[in-house]
Each structure stands twice: as C-alpha cells, then as structure tokens.
Amino acid sequence: MPVTPVTPVGMATAPMQHTMGECNLKTKYPGDEYCILPPPPDKGFQMHIGPSNYDSPEAQYLLQPGAEPTSDFGTTSTNDTEQFFYYREFRMRPGAHHNIITSGGAGDSGLGQRIGTVNSLLEDYPKGGVIAPENKGVGIKMKPKTRISVSLHSINTTEKTLLREIWVNFWYRPAAEVTEPVNEVFSIGSMSPIPPGATVTNKGSCRVGGTKGRMLWAYGHRHANTDRFTIYRTRGGKKDLVYQGYSWEEPLVLDYSTTVKNAVPGESPNEGGWSGILDTQPGDTFDWECHVVNKTNGTLLFSNNTYTGEMCILDAEMVGSTCN
User: Fold this and answer.
1) Distance in angstroms (rounded) separating the CA atoms of residues 125 and 190
2) Which of 67, 82, 160, 217 is most buried per CB count within 10 Å?
3) Strands 180-188 and 313-323, sheet pairing
4) For 114-128, how does the pLDDT look when each residue is reduced to its tens digit (9 = 90+)?
5) Mean pLDDT, the chain, whole residue set
C-alpha cells in the first residue's frame, strides 16, 4: 500500500529524511524508488513529466545509450485558485542532469518566473520541509491553472535505455502568512574557450540591489571538468566564503537558515559553507569561481554537453534583495 506523504512542518530544529519509494513502482527502468506521491489536493500539487504507460513509453521519454538531449516539456498546474508555495520536493530518475522549471505563459501573471531548478536526482527546498522561523513569511505566487515549462537535460552513459521522468511536489503556504516574495537568482559566469589540457578559473559576479534581505539557498551549476565551485559574499572589501563544492554530479545545495548547520568547507572532498542567516545589503556582491581542468582532447565551449562543454552558473533564491 502506498504511504501517505508527510505534510511539511512550519518550524523545526532538525530536517526530516528525504521522502522516497512511495509509489511501489515496478518497471524495467532504474529509478522507481524516486517516485513520490502527490500532496493532498488542499495541501499542494505535483508536477509530473513522464510517460503515460510504462509498458510502452512515448519516444520523448526514452533515453538511448550515449544520448544527451535537452528537451522542453509543458504542463499546467492543478490549482483552481491562487496559491503560494515555498517547500518543493524534487525527484528525477537516473540519467537526468538538471531541470529548470518556469511558470507563466501568454496572459499569465509572472511571465517567465523561475520556480525551481535542480541538478541532482533528490533534493528538497528547504531541507526536509523545515521552514525556518525567519522564513515563515516567504512564498512564491502561483496563479490558477498556470502554464509551466520544464527544460530537462539528460545524459545516458550506460549501455541500456533509461527513462526520462521527474516528479516535483509544490506544497502550499497560507496566503495570509506570505509577506516576503522570492527573487530567483540565475547568473552566468564568464567563459572563454578552454583548450585541451588547460586549467582555468572562470568567474562571475552579481551586485545586490533592492533592500536589505537574505539569501535562502544557493548552489553552483557546472559540468564534469569543473573540480571546484566557490562562492563569496563581498561587503566593503571583505570576502566571506559562503559555498565550496567539489561534486559536479551531485552538486552541493546549501540552505542558509537558523535550522540548518552546514559543514565547514575544506580541501576536497570536504564541501560546506556559511551557516545561519546569510544577510544581504545593497552594494554587496556575490562572486563565484569555477576551477576547470580540461581533461578532454577537445576545446571546451559553453554548452549543455556534460563532458565536452562547461558552464559556471550561480543559482539561488533571495528575499528582499536581488542580484543582477
């Protein structure tokens, strides 16, 4: 029997475990355990991208050996009334590299608003559904029956056909509690062609605007030839290390809140960063670096190709402030 999903808590002192294996799927494809049940209709909705029949999946959901497509899929939210959300559960089958979720279409409010980005098979924002006390007013608006676009990048390095499928649960927040809208950050660092065997450091920077605020979470998006991603907050000439990650396959995602204690960063493989509230002020900058070692026989260009291309992107969410 499927289990009932746990309703996210408003405040807690420790994160819950990731929800897994709720659907009891038994297909011939790896990743059945990533399927999760949708929230109760009055608590949230699930965005599902995947086949309608596991015995004969549609062609766009089949990932052949050696293939690396980036595809756009569309769907519509199921809410009949305007809702707000913050907590999201992301699950993807093996072979998925990232998905970028954008809400809004012609005639919709919030045209082109990013409402989720994930670069690992299993991720929750915020961790375990624990909404920190300082974030009890945080929320993202979802108009009724909003059109949603999903950009899914997949790669199959195995010798068997994989299935392209993702599940994302959006958990509602009471509208009366939402006082702080979320500002998405998706900022691309500079990159020149990287010759074979070369070692370079790609850099990016964005300047904080708006009002005083805080960064809710952040991660660094990169590909297989980047062995270190580092983020600093710079204020008045002082640089604070807030993020250091080494794994490109399962990139570190850091929550900056009073309910999460992040590891102290060190030499590889010791990932970590800032713990507690990461406050932001107009005039601050967030500066990031991608240390790239081109291990291929070709020149690396900016592209979605996981092994033969590179990127250096700061992905985050903020309240109060923006970073452009």
Assistant:
1) 27
2) 217
3) antiparallel
4) 899 888 899 999 988
5) 91
b/e per residue, 23-35, with b = 16+ CB within 10 A?
eeeeeebebbebb
Portions of the chain given CATH number 2.60.120.230? 32-178, 183-323
Among the four given CATH numbers 2.40.30.110, 2.160.10.10, 2.60.120.230, 3.40.50.150, the one describing domain 183-323: 2.60.120.230
d(CA 309, CA 294): 10
| Predicted TM-score (pTM) of this structure | 0.89
The yes/no answer on whether domain 32-178 falls in CATH 2.70.70.10 is no
Which distant-in-sequence residues (6+ apart) come within 8 Å of 107 by Cβ? none
- What confidence tens digit (pLDDT) does each residue in 183-224 have? 999 999 999 999 999 999 999 999 999 999 999 999 999 999
Q: Residue 125 carries which DSSP code?
A: E
